[in-house]
Amino acid sequence: MSSVETAILPGGIVSRPGSTADYKTGTWRVKRPVVDLNKCTGCLICWIYCPEPAILKREDGKIEFDYEHCKGCGICSEECPPKAISMVEE
Amino acid sequence: MSLLQPKMLRPMSTSEAIAYAVKQANVDVIAAYPITPQTIIVERLSEYVNNGELDAEYVAVESEHSAMSACVAASLTGARVFTSTASQGLALMHEVLYVASSLRCPIVMAIANRALSAPINIHCDHSDVMGSRDAGWVHIFVENGQQAYDRVFQAFRLAEDEDVLLPVGINLDGFFLSHAVEGIATISDSKAATFLPPRKAKYYVDSSMPMTFGAFALPDWYFEIKHQVAIAMEKVPKKLEEVEKLYYQMTGRIYGHVGAYKTEDAEVGLVCAGSAAGTAKYAVSRLREKGIKAGLLSIRLFRPFPVESILPHVKDMRALVVMDRAMSPGAPSAPIGQDIKTMLYDAGLRRNIPVVNFVYGLGGRDISAAEFEEIVTKVAKDVKARRRIQRGTIYWGLRS
């Protein structure tokens, strides 16, 4: 058997839970979200809406992004009440 | 002397024989929706479960799409799973058939082959299975009730082999076989249990050791995961041979990948699948009496197509008559014709063995031994006169 054959279990079963985090989807991004911390109120609406989750909570209650997983969908920017997140070309 | 004692034969229709074998195979889950001409198979099974004769979960679903979906889920828990369908039912299952093979679910399904609508029709042809032939299932054709009964045990053993792990379809001609009664030599429950011990799945859904089944796969891995099905298919012919040897030791019955009759010195080979093989066999004997060197090859293992088992029989023949009970509109040949021609091309025999491809018997139209004789006699005459054999697809038995 080739190394490829032994690398995958029958039917592509994934035997280790939580391994999706290893799959870096940040390369899909066309635009990246950038937060203006002066405007961010720490309401965490973006954190609730982010489908990934690629919004990380900072110690000061505001947010930052996990750019390794953020696909650049822009939902956070759309939903942010004070319009603190802008989408910037990569 | 046959190992079969006449007193041990039980009169059963092919449908009843299949249901009886499934009961003896001690399946864990049956999820099925009744459809003519398969209905009797699942009716008998529901009776077995209801009467406490079979300790299985019978899931009465609302459609064949749900039936196959339930079968996939049950199979992933490590259960032994059976279902049955036909025609529109198989068509409705179509998308889930691919899930079953790609998730490597060793489900066994009896398909009582029936024509597809429209016009709506309940009788036999092979359009249903031919429409699903690329779904990654192993497909076996049976010629009679005895083969159907025996193949159930063999199918589970083959499907559940860790090197195979593919679903298996047992194709029986609707009505011609499903409703025909014959004497079936059965095996004892204890022999069945020895031949087919409970399934031992290596990977299965279990909350104590969570795994992901049916994960998303992108262009980076999808191809490799799909390729696994092709690799498993390649192992089937040899595995089925091993399974059949064991079954032979127990019963004295063996069928092989192809059923060959008088092929040793045959000049014209007749190729078909399903119940027509019996009629064709009779036609070949009659042709032999008339001095025409005809031979018969019945395709018993259809997927994977058993090229290595067919070639030795046909390599010295001078023409092949391939009978398809399904059409492939617009294609250069009908389904079995396509496989036979590809086989000959790859073997470097395309110039030596011309192929005449006939589409016959759609919607249950009968074909007689006399018709097989007429077809082969004409081809044999052309061969003898060194005339060019007619190529292309011929629709046989249409009203003129």
Automatic annotation (TrEMBL), chain A:
GO terms for molecular function: 4 iron, 4 sulfur cluster binding; metal ion binding; oxidoreductase activity, acting on the aldehyde or oxo group of donors, iron-sulfur protein as acceptor. Its cofactor is [4Fe-4S] cluster. Keywords: 4Fe-4S, Electron transport, Iron, Iron-sulfur, Metal-binding, Repeat, Transport. Residues 31-60, 61-90 form the 4Fe-4S ferredoxin-type domain. It comes from the Archaea. It holds the Pfam family Fer4_21. This is Ferredoxin. It comes from Candidatus Terraquivivens tikiterensis.
TrEMBL record, chain B:
The lineage of its organism: Archaea, Nitrososphaerota, Candidatus Wolframiiraptoraceae, Candidatus Terraquivivens. InterPro entries: PFOR_II, Pyruvate:ferred/Flavod_OxRd, Pyrv_Fd/Flavodoxin_OxRdtase_N, THDP-binding, Transketo_C/PFOR_II. Residues 266-371 form the Pyruvate:ferredoxin oxidoreductase core domain. It comes from the Archaea. One of its GO terms (molecular function) is oxidoreductase activity, acting on the aldehyde or oxo group of donors. Residues 21-245 form the Pyruvate flavodoxin/ferredoxin oxidoreductase pyrimidine binding domain. Keywords: Oxidoreductase. This is Pyruvate ferredoxin oxidoreductase. One of its GO terms (biological process) is carboxylic acid metabolic process. Pfam families: PFOR_II (PF17147), POR_N (PF01855). Heterotetramer of one alpha, one beta, one delta and one gamma chain.
